[in-house]
Specification:
Elements (H helix, E strand, L loop, with lengths): L3 E7 L3 H18 L3 E6 L4 H9 L6 E2 L18 E2 L4 H11 L3 E5 L5 E6 H9 L6 H4 L2 E2 H7 L3 E4 L5 E2 L4 E3 L4 H7 L5 E4 L3 H9 L4 E4 L7 H10 L2 E4 L4 H7 L18 E2 L4 H8 L6 E5 L5 E6 L10 E5 L15 E7 L13 E4 L5 H11 L6 H14 L10 H14 L3 H12 L7 H5 L3 E6 L2 E10 L2 H18 L7 E8 L4 E7 L3 H9 L7 E5 L4 H14 L2
Length: 546
């Protein structure tokens, strides 16, 4: 069974990352099962500081939860080499209960595909007596197919010229239809064997396990005639001999379809639904063969179990969330649009931080909080509440943060200053990096909007950011997929926000929402520091009144 993923929202902030790590730890300790913390975007500077300070690596990056071929239970069957006989290929396919087998190079790359249909066509179509030479059939294949052995000649040589002849007549008549280099299926009659060699046959197949005389052996050696001895009768040898043809002769060499482990199951389904093919080779990132997948395999894809932390909106969730099975949600935001097939554990509390909820759950389950985990939880609360300055901060947030600081050995004021300074450094970032440090997408009525926020302890730094952000937002809007862009430049010390905005009707929306007079796509909002509690609600109400 796959481990359950614990993941926060896109463009993750410190709470999103820390809550994923800590809740995965709590769930693992509670259940004994495997929970993997992940992230849905790049780690910002503030979060990187927190992770390094507390001794954690960034969680694994998940760009999409859309199932890939690697997530499908397909058959890891072996391939075969092009030189293998049709007889051996059939036995392999019979034993593995498969109808398609890949033909591989010595580096596990695909040369071709062989199906039962290919074999049937080869047998049913009228193959002339030159079939084995056209296929350049190795003598070892012929000996193996006829359950015999090569007693004169090199088994690795190939039969590449001539036809197959059944010598059922007396030697006088044989001379009329045996040509040079032919392969002659013959019995134990000395005269017939001698005649075939004298007619410069390339190979004689002696049936019924007859012993080969020293004279015949010597003459065959001198004339370069290969001798194969089989225990089978001549009729059976004639019936089976075409099964010695190497599979490389009849395999499909072109126009066969392969898939990669990283291919999307949804896209693969679209492709195979248009084809009358049942099995397809699967390749790894180096184009090496790893197995065969069928259309039936694509119907039984195990959904990835996911726990969402610090969000519950589809617009903020990792791509492909519809293809996953959401089993829990732990959040402190408004309840929105993530849908589930079955009832789930959903915990949403009006607190300043998701990490506060998770800290409570440690206590409720009598699970001790290790110092490193306490450091992450405390950092998340300090970040989300702007060191208790945000109106979203509750007495519970501050009380739990101070308790966690004691466990982790953190001096809150000193630590918060270092953390916020590490997260600022906005002058080193491009406008695109700044905008996506902490941005979230929302819907209001028939409109979609993005609200981004950056924080700093420096008025001068925020001023510099403003100069480059408005032009950037103008160019971003047409390709953003939303109707409106807002950006909060929040000064932690002054406890104020300058709100930048672009998009149709955003000027009137801001006027209505905050009772201010905007100036050049900007409005200063005194006492406003919280996106969730002070900005998002008024914006949505104003948009819905439009």
């Amino acid at each position: 069974m796959k481990p359950t993923i614990v993941i926060g929202h896109k463009n993750p902030d410190t709470d999103s990352i820390c809550s994923a790590i800590c809740y995965a730890d709590l769930k693992s300790r509670l259940t004994g099962e495997k929970f993997i913390p992940c992230r849905a975007g790049e780690v910002n500077s503030e979060t990187a500081f927190v992770l390094e300070r507390n001794g954690f690596e960034p969680p694994a990056l998940i760009e999409s939860l859309e199932p890939k071929i690697a997530d499908v239970q397909f058959r890891r069957t072996d391939g075969i080499e092009a030189e293998i006989s049709l007889k051996r290929a059939w036995e392999h396919m019979r034993d593995e209960n498969i109808q398609t087998v890949p033909i591989l190079t010595d580096r596990n790359k695909i040369k071709g595909i062989l199906t039962l249909g290919d074999q049937a066509r080869f047998y049913m179509e009228d193959q002339d007596a030159h079939a084995l030479s056209k296929a350049k059939t190795p003598y070892k294949n012929i000996a193996d197919t006829l359950q015999g052995e090569v007693v004169v000649g090199d088994p690795e040589d190939v039969f590449s010229d001539g036809k197959v002849v059944v010598a059922a007549a007396n030697p006088d008549i044989m001379e009329d239809y045996i040509d040079e280099n032919d392969m002659v299926l013959i019995g134990n009659r000395y005269e017939s064997q001698l005649c075939a060699i004298e007619m410069n046959a390339g190979c004689i197949v002696i049936g019924l396990g007859a012993k080969v005389s020293k004279t015949i052996t010597k003459l065959a050696t001198e004339s370069g005639c290969v001798i194969i001895v089989s225990p089978l009768d001549t009729y059976t040898c004639a019936k089976l001999i075409n099964q010695a043809v190497p599979v490389g002769h009849i395999m499909k060499k072109d126009n066969f379809i392969t898939f990669n482990l990283e291919d999307s199951v949804a896209e693969v389904k679209k492709t195979v639904s248009k084809l009358r093919v049942r099995y397809f080779p699967v390749l790894d990132s180096d184009d090496r063969y790893v197995g065969m997948i069928s259309q039936r395999n694509l119907l039984n894809v195990e959904k990835q179990k996911v726990i969402l932390v610090d969000h519950n909106e589809k617009g903020q969730a990792v791509d492909g969330i519809r293809s996953a099975q959401v089993v829990e949600v732990i959040d402190h935001h408004r309840i929105d649009s993530v849908e589930t097939m079955n009832p789930i554990y959903f915990r949403n509390q009006p607190l300043g931080c998701t990490a506060t909820i998770i800290s409570m759950m440690y206590r409720e389950n009598n699970i001790s909080i290790e110092p490193k985990i306490a450091g992450l939880l405390c950092s998340a609360i300090i970040s989300d509440t702007l060191m208790f300055r945000s109106p979203t901060c509750t007495p519970a947030d501050e009380s739990i943060a101070r308790y966690l600081a004691g466990v982790a050995g953190i001096k809150i004021e000193e630590y918060a200053t270092a953390m916020f300074n590490a997260g600022s450094q906005l002058s080193r970032k491009t406008p695109d990096e700044i905008f996506h440090i902490d941005c979230k997408q929302f819907r209001a009525d028939n409109y979609s909007l993005i609200v981004s926020q950056v924080t700093s302890v420096s008025t001068r730094e925020l001023g510099k950011v403003k100069k480059k952000m408005l032009p950037y937002m103008e160019t971003l809007l047409p390709n953003s997929g939303v109707d409106m862009l807002f950006m909060m430049l929040t000064n932690i010390i002054n406890e104020s926000t300058e709100l930048l905005f672009v998009g149709a009707n955003t000027d009137s929306v801001v006027r209505t929402a905050f009772s201010v007079t905007p100036d050049d796509s900007s409005a200063v909002l005194e006492g406003v520091v919280s996106r969730k509690k002070q900005v998002l609600g008024p914006l949505i109400e104003a948009i819905e009144k439009m």
